Amino acid sequence: MSLYYLSTKLIFENMFRIFTLLLSFKFSISYKIQASFVFGDSLLDVGNNNYITSLAKANHHPYGIDFGKPTGRFCNGRTVVDVIEQHLGLGYTPPYLSPNTCGSVILKGVNYASAAAGILNYTGHIFVGRINFDAQIDNFANTREDIISKIGVRGALKLLKNSLFTVAFGSNDFLDNYLAPGPSIPEWQLLSPESFVAIMISTFRVQITRLFTLGARKIVVINVGPIGCIPCMRDLNPFSGDKCVKFPNHLAQLFNTQLKNLVEELRTDLKGSLFVYGDAYHIMEDIMMNYSKYGRVKFLIFFPFICLWRFLFY
């Protein structure tokens, strides 16, 4: 299958429609979402990496062309979460590290996502600076204290209870860790895929539980997409031809299966929680396999240097 891309608008409309249905089903319309707190990697980063020393930045052309300038988002314009937040009437949640993210602004939510970040703290080391999930939760804990100082403990807990928490990690733990080339190979790269995924899941369980302890109740957990279809993986595996690379996609599916089971367990174990499992893998797979039903398509050719760009400047 040749690789195609669709207009950003059509992709966002499809993903937004699906996620909105999920949210509407799980989070009854009787709930008023008061704020949005976002945790993740480059898929959701809105500029945090602009404020750290990192090779993973989107503060240059062609990023942000829909905004008229780069914003730190790794896309033309809005992220999927941006669209959902606008629909909820919250506007764009600001990056945590922005000096303007203070005062009453934080009562509408904060974005902690960081490009190259992962579940495991070693993930993304080849990009130098990044804010992995543990550190993002630390940052949220700081925000929580700031919220308490403004509206008190009772008000803060009520706000967090009625807030949307979006969490999207895992891709970089494969791309920039388990599968990453380099002279220094950590011990877990010698593990079987099953053992490595088990470490990811056990670590993620602790992290989500900590987020719950800090007040998160309505939590959307987004799985890993078909990473074997991205330009870098295809360039590294030219013998795959026009098809996606099987092994990275196998890793993603292995993780997603266990992630879905984990979400089911957390629904039971964390009393008072409301979880949504966001299936990005099959949404994107459907877009790639059935591109014609989504509208205008174009043929996209990838050159070998794109992979080097991915590992050096993503």
Automatic annotation (TrEMBL):
Its main location: secreted. It is found in: Secreted. One of its GO terms (biological process) is lipid catabolic process. Gene3D superfamilies: SGNH hydrolase. Keywords: Hydrolase, Lipid degradation, Lipid metabolism, Membrane, Secreted, Signal, Transmembrane, Transmembrane helix. The chain crosses the membrane at residues 297-313. Pfam families: Lipase_GDSL. One of its GO terms (molecular function) is hydrolase activity, acting on ester bonds. GO terms for cellular component: extracellular region. Belongs to the 'GDSL' lipolytic enzyme family. This is GDSL-like lipase/acylhydrolase. It comes from Medicago truncatula (Barrel medic). The gene is 11416825.
